[in-house]
Amino acid sequence: MPKTGLFFGSFNPIHTGHLIIANYMANHTDLDEVWLVVSPHNPLKKKDTIINMYDRLEMANLALEHAENIRSSTIEFSLPQPSYTIDTLINLREKHPEKQFVLIMGSDNLVSLKKWKNYEIILRDYQILVYPRPDYPVPPELENHPAITITDTPLMEFSSTFIRDAVKNGKNIRYFVPDSVLAFIENKGLYR
Ligand SMILES: Nc1ncnc2c1ncn2[C@@H]1O[C@H](COP(=O)(O)OP(=O)(O)OP(=O)(O)O)[C@@H](O)[C@H]1O
Ligand SMILES: O=C(O)c1ccc[n+]([C@@H]2O[C@H](COP(=O)([O-])O)[C@@H](O)[C@H]2O)c1
Questions:
Q1: N or C: which terminus of the chain carries fewer CB neighbours within 10 A?
Q2: No. of H helices and E strands in the chain?
Q3: What is its EC number (predicted)?
């Protein structure tokens, strides 16, 4: 059964950290592919900091132009908002019974997992590959949980928040995002 990693996120905007994680998961683990699922609205985030989902998708597609075994997914664009992960997982399972889905998340999301809708069902029914993130140690009660695998990958101390703040302050963000994404942000005047 093909194994597909689902990397859910706001991607506001997508950055080099996301791309390194997606590439590691798609090409250095036993996953066959990774789908980067652009979420219209994370239930735990205020909507006013999140730009239009189509611009976020476009940036993800630009960033993934040369990626191997990684593609974007718009599955949540047609589902109710905010975007509850369990609802998307159930929908994907129905649509793709031939695939085994595995979740990919940074350790910050693992820290807030207990606030997610039906998180016990997620932990019961899905494997989760966790990418460690500075300042977000894995909660001890989840460290040895059978659903969870912590990957042995380098820490990257940057975030979409850092990029949005830098753009607002007129700072240079080259290399934090791919050149194509940088050009898109500049041309559309995003995050100013
Ligand atoms: N530097 C990083 N190291 C590890 N995981 C990361 C990193 N940046 C993002 N992630 C993970 O990528 C996924 C999508 O993240 P998201 O789009 O929220 O990016 P973010 O940088 O955390 O954004 P924001 O700063 O807006 O909260 C989440 O699972 C998050 O944990
Ligand atoms: O299902 C939930 O209750 C839930 C709560 C918080 C976050 N999520 C999802 O987790 C993903 C990570 O979001 P983000 O903003 O950290 O990139 C995104 O797809 C959210 O919709 C899901």
A1: N
A2: 8, 6
A3: 2.7.7.18
